[in-house]
Automatic annotation (TrEMBL):
SUPFAM superfamilies for the chain: TPR-like
PANTHER family in the cross-refs: EXPRESSED PROTEIN
UniProt protein name: Tetratricopeptide repeat protein
Taxonomic classification: Eukaryota, Viridiplantae, Streptophyta, Embryophyta, Tracheophyta
Species per Swiss-Prot/TrEMBL record: Canna indica (Indian-shot)
């Protein structure tokens, strides 16, 4: 009985066939005509340039709107103006020009009251009012500011002097002065309030009466 055995394909033949197929594929992909390669390169360059121009044309993102930027600039200008007027008022107070100092302190209190530091203008206004204006109005201003600026030693010391000398309220004056000197002991020194804080003469005199209990 004869048994037929299938022969495996010849390795040489198989390798040769594979070589021919690979050569054919390589030729079909690599051998691109020069004019076609040039067109492909030009098309790619044009596409890249178009993408770059498109990206460059997109404006950068800005989270702040023009309206917000204008409002911020206007607010900064108002703060700058208020501080300038407050400094001018204090300078006039230091020079003893109390009527003009009162004008600028009042300007800050009236036109810039939305700012917290306008309370410091109220302190200055109360001091110069005490010198040249109605002392009752000055003391009322001091009492009001002593609440909004509670813990600010100057207003407590000034209120103590005025309450003692003008209102003859010794106990209230003592309470206010205790707060002042706990925060800043300098207010027991008349030269300090006169030369450093630029208190007007009448208020310095009232403080002297309080300190000496005269």
């Amino acid at each position: 009985m004869t048994t037929s055995v299938a022969r495996a394909p010849s390795p040489l033949f198989s390798s040769s066939a594979r070589h021919h197929r690979s050569s054919a594929i390589l030729k079909s992909t690599v051998l691109v005509p020069p004019w076609k390669r040039r067109n492909l390169l030009l098309s790619a360059a044009a596409l890249l340039l178009a993408c770059q121009n498109s990206v460059a044309a997109i404006p950068p993102f800005d989270p702040v709107t023009n309206r917000e930027r204008s409002a911020s600039a206007a607010l900064s200008q108002r703060v700058e103006d208020a501080v300038r007027f407050l400094d001018l008022a204090r300078d006039l107070q230091a020079k003893g020009d109390y009527p003009r100092a009162l004008d600028y302190f009042t300007l800050v209190v009236r036109d810039y009251k939305e700012f917290a530091f306008s309370d410091y203008a109220r302190v200055g206004r109360a001091l110069v009012l005490y010198e040249i204006g109605d002392r009752d109005e000055a003391i009322a201003e001091m009492e009001d500011v002593s609440i909004s600026l509670k813990g600010y030693p100057e207003i407590h010391a000034a209120l103590a002097a005025a309450l003692y000398f003008d209102k003859h309220a010794a106990l209230l004056a003592e309470n206010q002065f205790t707060i002042a000197i706990l925060l800043d002991p300098h207010y027991t020194d008349l030269s300090y309030v006169r030369e450093n804080k630029h208190w007007p003469p009448s208020l310095v005199d009232s403080l002297q009466h309080f300190i000496t209990l005269s």
